[in-house]
Amino acid sequence: MNLVLTLALTAICLGGETFFHAPRAYLGEQAFSLRLSDGRVANGHTLLLECIPEGPGVEAGRVADLPVARADLAGPAGRVADLTVSTGTRIHRLYPHPTEVDSVLFTLIGIPYGTAPGPDTLHVEWTESDRIFDRELPFSVVAGPYRSEQIRGVPQNRVTPSAEDFRRIARERKIIAAAYEAVRDTAMMVDTFSYPVEKKTITSPYGTRRVFNGQLRSFHGGLDLRAYEGTPLYAAQSGVVKLAQNLFYSGNHVLIEHGMGIHTGYSHMSRLYVKTGDVVTRGQLLGLSGSTGRVTAAHLHWTVNVNGVGVSPLQFTEILSMLYGKPVEVRNRNDG
Question: Which residues pair with 124 in a beta bridge?
């Protein structure tokens, strides 16, 4: 018995592998090629990462049991398992690519508005034949082209709410948080977004710092589109209505879940033509524009949320166009 233990300890000291050995990381393996939409991304924007299997054992693979945070690919020469993508402590869920072969995966990574400029890294990890493989993909977060905006004429009770209003706001925050909980992981759409108004005229871009009646209150977490009172408003994509009600700040508001952690919001409406739980299709009439909530005039405030991160609707639409192989519209740098 002592001889066996001595031989085992000697093997460990010499770097040999025994049944006592801990998992080892093998860096630089090329089971996947990684395609990132850009090496530089602004705070409040979205990155697209595509994971393309390479070599035997994965090239004929097929995604199983997706969407999950960890994906498995099985092929003729082996098995790639526990594929994960992360930034810091955030795990990004993977999905089958809508236009590539079955084994190609993708994930959408929203960069929070409050992220400071600087270097960051995407970590991709997987196992094959009981070995752990790791790839690092560096990228940079840059400051977005955001400005400050003075907004005057807002009813003062919408700028400095009363105690009763604050209680209402607190209740609504819980309702909104519950509505944003993703419950449909599979994609409910087969194309990029369409705009929720027939004529796209941007009146206030995403990311602008909002100064209401001389008081800095927030940043603009959506895209304002011109929509005079009574303008028809349409669903940007298919999905399920998670919320359709009047809110203190957003007025008459509709929130739609599209799957894959994606939500769109439509605020300040005068009339709602859908209700919570409705299944809607791309281009379906949701209601009419208005000036309800914290506004000075009728318009549409359109928001996009990716896995809990509010992002620029305009730039996110461009990322979806890349994903679905559609032409990307050239936009003004200051459009957010």
Answer: 85, 135
How far apart, in whole angstroms, are the C-alpha atoms of residue 282 and residue 292?
A: 24
Report CA torsion sign: 266, 268, 271, 277.
positive
Beta bridge partner(s), residue 134: 27, 125
Tens-digit pLDDT profile for residues 290-325: 999 888 899 999 999 999 999 999 999 999 999 998
Pairing of strands 239-247, 232-234: unpaired
pLDDT at 75 over 80: no
User: Which residue, 193, 245, 246, 248, is CA-closest to 223?
Assistant: 193
What residues contact 55, with CB distance under 8 A and at least 6 apart? 30, 31
Phi, psi of 164 (to 5 degrees): -65, -40
What is the pTM (predicted TM-score) of this model? 0.80
Number of alpha carbons in the 13 Å side-chain half-sphere of residue 77: 8
Q: Is the dihedral of CA 132, 135, 136, 137 positive or negative?
A: negative
The answer to whether residues 265 and 216 touch, using CB atoms and an 8 Å cutoff, is: no
